[in-house]
Amino acid sequence: MYDVLDVLRDNEARGRVSAVHCRGGIGRTGMVIGCWLVDSGHAENGEEALKIIAREWRTVEKCKRYPHSPETGPQFEYVLNYHPKNANNTW
Question: What is the pLDDT of residue 53?
Fold first, then answer.
């Protein structure tokens, strides 16, 4: 996960736009975005990140077929327990 977030951080520093997606755009995508929210300081912790994702997920058409993102219990747990590599949340 840290390697993925390093790429996102590098792209942001260079002014590049990043797109995060997996096969379905639900499980792994939600997991990466949840960790990024914490890492970037947009969320205080994994719980807050999951609340942000849940709020935004309700605006996506596929939420009718897939009620939440991340998709699986282990993915949710990963975000809940995620701790940034740099405890100061500085990029």
Answer: 96
DSSP, residue by residue, the chain: -HHHHHHHHHHHHTT-------SSSSHHHHHHHHHHHHHTTSSSSHHHHHHHHHHHHTTSGGGGTS--SS-SHHHHHHHHT---SSTT---
Tokens of 91: 């990029």
Is residue 27 a contact partner of residue 78, using CB atoms and an 8 Å limit?
no
Per-residue pLDDT reduced to its tens digit, 24-69: 888 999 999 999 999 999 999 999 999 999 999 999 999 899 998 9
Cβ atoms of residues 34 and 68 within 8 Å: no
pLDDT at 5: 95
pTM passes above 0.90: no
The set of residues, in sequence order, having a beta carbon less than 8 Å from that of 28 and lying 6+ positions away, is: 22, 70, 75
